[in-house]
């Protein structure tokens, strides 16, 4: 971060230390547990909403100019909206992708439900084609794999939405902060994104090699947690991650940590018990709770919190909850210091499983509730996505972690050499392989009373920058492995905040309509 930015941050923190006092109260009428923890910034409550499978260009490439056709929610940017690294006339009209009819094209609001593209570790590298970013048609969906009613096109992967469909996200961008230089930690899939979010690591499992899934001890595709950690483990291969995660640093039964309250809240985690084991719903996806891959933070039987006051602490739930528990925590004053929110499968924004309109409803409903709570005054909400789904993005990611596995790495080869030729740079001696990254550029949004207004951050960050902020704000240290991405992370999201702003969260709230994404009262 530039020196002037750090000076501004330090001045803001000095003002906060002189003037800040806790506002939210717990059930006992005293300041809630999260308020009592010492933090490096005024942020006492962090809510991380982790959505699914969208690239930056897919959601923000056209920002801030929307087509505004009749019948769709309109979007008009403020006159002082900063520019982003988005689509140019050349990218829109003479795109270098190696196929006919391959220019990016606008997806209408009526085309919100689409097929699912290809986001595998090797294939995303191949699509980037050594930085030429011209082979994304290789990750395009196939019509035969689509569900009835999902929109398909021969060049679907080049489709993008604008502010008439992802209206809420564009409105949040106008009033808070976004990044146009935020990347997936590695090329690859859902489980890899989730593991990196909480541990900075996809290396270190109890299985060294499983063809197509685990290579050189690193996860390279979706795998499922072991039955010992999860009563609803999904299909083989099943693995246990052997390292630490951020839950261990904050505090649980195995690692006392700092005693920071925290929780992962996944909507489909709800289950019933039969013979002492969880019976999960049909749409439960074990990939969506990464803490279940670690013995120290797993809740195998999906047990609920022992009582409302125990939410965020170590009890039978072991910090793993459903989304109803999150709403309860917001309502009853027991919101943990750090909350990870995962929507139900139909609401995550994942193509084929969900849509940006369903995602918008879930996002706005949740954020409206948080802005209406007393926690809003010292809160930061970040919205991030686990991977790109293979959607087109024109920015070549910086490779800060090379790998040269001949079976899986293909970034510097040509598409004709697919699936792999072993080249994603030259790793250092002893480096963990099969973690080529950074991966594809992703959207990233920060919503907070302390977020800079109508701000686009250009500093380099990745998924583990969220992990790094948690470590920094609550004084947790790092996870201890010098090859974990929380150590390798090159940037900080702190620059998206202005801690010298006048306090008073109510004045920064922006209530939107969950259906249209337009302002619905309380606009500041």
Short description:
This protein has 11 helices and 18 strands. By secondary structure, the protein is of the alpha/beta class.
Description:
The chain has 11 helices and 18 strands. 19% of the residues lie in helices and 11% in strands. It is globular and about 60 Å long. The chain has helices at 3-19, 56-60, 89-93, 121-128, 167-175, 190-199, 246-250, 323-332, 356-371, 464-473, 485-488, and strands at residues 45-51, 105-106, 159-160, 177-179, 182-183, 214-215, 218-219, 224-225, 238-239, 262-266, 271-274, 277-280, 320-321, 338-342, 379-385, 444-447, 455-457, 461-462. It has one domain (44-508): Alkaline Phosphatase, subunit A, CATH 3.40.720.10. Mean pLDDT is 90; it is low at 1-31. α4 links the parallel β2 (105-106) and β3. Strands 13-10-14-1-15-16-4-17 form an 8-stranded mixed sheet, with helices on one face. It is an alpha/beta fold and 524 residues long. The two termini are 30 Å apart. α6 packs parallel to α10 (464-473).
Strand order in the sheet with the most strands: 13-10-14-1-15-16-4-17
Number of domains: 1
Find the CATH topology.
Alkaline Phosphatase, subunit A
Distance, first to last CA: 30 Å
| SSE class | alpha/beta
Helical percent range?
10-25%
Q: What summary fits the major beta sheet?
A: 8 strands, mixed
Radius of gyration over all CA atoms, rounded: 22 Å
DSSP helical segment count: 11
Unreliably modeled segments = 1-31
Which whole number gives the mean pLDDT?
Answer: 90
The helix/strand series, from N terminus to C terminus, equals HEHHEHEHEEHEEEEHEEEEHEHEEEEHH
The name of the CATH architecture is 3-Layer(aba) Sandwich
Q: Give me the CATH superfamily.
A: Alkaline Phosphatase, subunit A
DSSP summary, beta strand count: 18
**Fraction in beta strands:** 5-15%
Task: Supply the CATH class.
Answer: Alpha Beta
